[in-house]
């Protein structure tokens, strides 16, 4: 399938979607677009990653949980989470 055919297929598919689903597609497309920095030297100006920090150091950025859905959220994380890969 060439580029023009693929675009036509996508246009036909988009025409059949509800406004709510179109919004989701738009968010997805926004998330996969690569924004290349205008000046790659900006990346070199970032401060180095500080090693030796602990998870406890992040506590200064946390607040008290508000809401009554903590168990639901924890269950969701347990069901959908995966092992971290480094």
Structure report:
With 86 residues, the protein is mainly α. It has helices at residues 3-15, 19-32, 41-44, 70-80. The radius of gyration is 21 Å and the shape is extended. 0% of the residues are buried.
Concise synopsis of the structure shown:
It contains four helices and no strands.
Coarse structural class: mainly alpha
Most strands sheet: none
Radius of gyration, Cα only, in angstroms?
21 Å
Shape descriptor: extended
User: What is the succession of H and E elements?
Assistant: HHHH
Residues in helices, as a percent range: 40-55%
How large a portion of the residues is in β-strands, by DSSP E?
under 5%
What is the count of helical runs?
Answer: 4
Keywords:
86 residues; mainly alpha
How is this fold's topology laid out?
Elements: H1 3-15, H2 19-32, H3 41-44, H4 70-80
């Amino acid at each position: 399938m060439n580029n023009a055919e693929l675009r036509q297929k996508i246009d036909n598919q988009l025409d059949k979607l509800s406004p709510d689903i179109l919004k989701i597609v738009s968010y997805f497309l926004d998330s996969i677009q690569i924004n290349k920095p205008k000046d790659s030297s900006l990346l070199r100006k970032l401060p180095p990653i500080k090693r030796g920090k602990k998870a406890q150091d992040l506590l200064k950025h946390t607040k008290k949980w508000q809401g009554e859905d903590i168990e639901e959220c924890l269950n969701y994380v347990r069901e959908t989470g995966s092992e971290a890969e480094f």
